[in-house]
Prior knowledge:
Blueprint: E1 3-5, E2 13-21, E3 25-33, E4 39-44, E5 52-59, H1 60-63, E6 66-75, H2 81-89, E7 92-100, E8 103-108, E9 114-117, E10 121-130
Parallel strand pairs: 1-10
Antiparallel strand pairs: 2-5, 2-7, 3-4, 3-6, 6-10, 7-8, 9-10
Amino acid sequence: MKQIYDTGATENSIFMEVTVGTAGTAYTSVYLTKSDGQRDKLGESDADSGNVKEMRIGTGIELRRTWLQILTFIDFILVDEKNQDNAMNKFLIRYILHGGFSGHQTYVHDPDDVIVMPNGKVLVTKSIELK
């Protein structure tokens, strides 16, 4: 499900972070897509946690009419087989933005953001429109 964050038309800096709570191994990458289709990688997590530390992503005026696209890959292959299904249903991803007109907002992944792949892997795609 798409979320919307109002950046405001100011020079205020906008910040974001991603936190992943999972029994699996996670990796997250964050992209900014502009209205002309240009896509820039803003940051990524380490290879295990999936967490993206708080980072400045731009100013309100720079980010208007763009999209954040956040991809998180979670691998449950190291979770013992009898607990894999439970682990796949109990992870939580939080997307935190602040600095804009919308203030401090925390979004979570929605069921329609989750793609279950074979072999104990999950892909979570989150889009946040920046207005």
